[in-house]
């Protein structure tokens, strides 16, 4: 029996070694890994953003603080310059505006009465009293104008034609010139993020500082963008280099990073017409080659 058990143990060990020693068949990748079509190229991380002559996306902060009373647009909506986007509680500035209107009406009435009296009999009132009444009317007019400007700040309007990308608040939420508080990140975000015309989008890619010397001259730069999760390769048009090397915190926004890796921002553009599923804020791979 001992010999039989020993033989069974040896056979079991051999079978287990065979089963566990087999190399499983590798599954094919869901999509091809990022690869360059150029003979030599520089790799860089990129982020899609709206196309602007300078800067990146359009961020809108309110100039005053207060609760949101209306959100007049939705994300993805095309807007025109001056179109109202969000309104804030304007009870106090509206009351001040009405008070300024009443003050102006009173000041004008006083001035008109004194002007008529002075026209009938110049000796009825002094010239100094007439001038004072005129000055008070001018001051009331200026106060009304200031009240109108203050009241207008409680309506957030589109600064330019474009598309609403994100609305970071809702009716009843309190916002301030710092923006809207985000309960998830526990930080402040812009009240509204907009993009310009979306016929074209920009790609801001970050080139590692040790590769900056290998960048081709602007007139010889060519680039290609690969969209994550697809095999789509999009040719890019060079726009500009942001001539400032900064710490690489733009993509992760982790302010406590320990490694001081610095990058140079290079901006490209592409036409969105044939890419309906590409959005600002999306991360992409960028290969920069030489013509």
Descriptors:
291 residues; alpha+beta; Elongation Factor Tu (Ef-tu), domain 3; OB fold (Dihydrolipoamide Acetyltransferase, E2P); Helix Hairpins; 3 domains; six-stranded antiparallel barrel; six-stranded antiparallel β-sheet; 16 strands; elongated; BSH_CzcB-like; efflux transmembrane transporter activity; HlyD family secretion protein
Describe the structure.
InterPro entries: BSH_CzcB-like. It comes from Pseudomonas moorei. This is HlyD family secretion protein. This protein has 291 residues and is an alpha+beta fold. The protein folds into 3 domains: 103 residues, Beta Barrel (Elongation Factor Tu (Ef-tu), domain 3), CATH 2.40.30; 73 residues, OB fold (Dihydrolipoamide Acetyltransferase, E2P) (Beta Barrel), CATH 2.40.50.100; 64 residues, Helix Hairpins. β13 and β14 form a beta hairpin. It starts with a helix and ends with a strand. The mean pLDDT is 87. 26% of the residues lie in helices and 33% in strands. α2 runs antiparallel to α3. The longest helix has 30 residues. It has a 6-stranded antiparallel β-barrel with strand order 1-12-15-14-13-16. The chain contains 3 helices and 16 strands.
Report the biggest beta sheet as strand number plus sense, adding barrel if it closes.
6 strands, antiparallel, barrel
What's the number of domains?
3
Write out the strand line-up for the largest beta sheet, numbering strands in chain order.
1-12-15-14-13-16
Shape: elongated
Q: Helical content, roughly?
A: 25-40%
Distance between the termini: 80 Å
| Element string (H = helix, E = strand) | HEEEEEHHEEEEEEEEEEE
Structural class: alpha+beta
User: Strand content of the residues, in percent?
Assistant: 25-35%
Number of strands: 16
The stretches of 5 or more residues where confidence is low (pLDDT under 50) are none
**If you average the pLDDT, what whole number results?**
87
Q: Any idea of the CATH class of the largest domain?
A: Mainly Beta
**Looking at CATH, which topology of the largest domain would you report?**
Elongation Factor Tu (Ef-tu), domain 3
Q: Which architecture of the largest domain does the CATH hierarchy give at level 2?
A: Beta Barrel
Quickly count the helices. 3
According to CATH, the homologous superfamily of the largest domain is Efflux pump adaptor protein, beta barrel domain
> In angstroms, what is the radius of gyration?
33 Å
GO molecular function: efflux transmembrane transporter activity
Pfam family, one: BSH_CzcB
Protein name: HlyD family secretion protein
InterPro entries: BSH_CzcB-like (IPR058647)
């Amino acid at each position: 029996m001992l010999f039989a058990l020993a033989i069974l143990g040896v056979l079991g060990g051999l079978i287990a070694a065979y089963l566990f020693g087999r190399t499983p068949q590798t599954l094919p990748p869901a999509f091809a890994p990022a690869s360059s079509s150029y003979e030599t190229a520089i790799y860089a991380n990129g982020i899609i953003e709206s196309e602007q002559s300078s800067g990146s996306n359009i961020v809108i902060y309110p100039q005053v603080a207060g609760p949101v009373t209306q959100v007049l647009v939705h994300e993805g909506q095309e807007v025109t310059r001056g179109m109202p986007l969000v309104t804030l509680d304007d009870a106090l500035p509206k009351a001040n505006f009405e008070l300024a209107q009443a003050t102006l009406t009173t000041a004008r009435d006083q001035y008109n009465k004194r002007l008529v009296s002075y026209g009938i009999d110049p000796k009825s009132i002094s010239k100094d009293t007439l001038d004072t009444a005129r000055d008070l009317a001018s001051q009331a007019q200026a106060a009304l104008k200031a009240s109108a400007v203050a009241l207008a700040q409680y309506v957030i309007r589109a600064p330019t034609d474009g598309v609403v990308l994100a609305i970071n608040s809702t009716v009843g939420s309190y916002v301030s010139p710092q923006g809207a508080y985000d309960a998830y990140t526990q930080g402040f975000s812009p009240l509204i993020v907009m993009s310009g015309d979306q016929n074209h989008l920009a790609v801001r890619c970050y080139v590692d500082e040790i590769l900056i010397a290998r960048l081709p001259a602007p007139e010889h730069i060519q680039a290609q963008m690969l969209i994550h999760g697809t095999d789509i390769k999009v040719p890019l048009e060079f726009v500009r280099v942001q001539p400032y090397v900064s710490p690489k915190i733009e993509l992760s926004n982790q302010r406590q990073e320990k490694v001081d890796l610095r990058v140079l921002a290079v901006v490209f553009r592409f036409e969105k017409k044939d890419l309906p599923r590409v959005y600002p804020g999306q991360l992409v791979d960028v290969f920069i080659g030489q013509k």
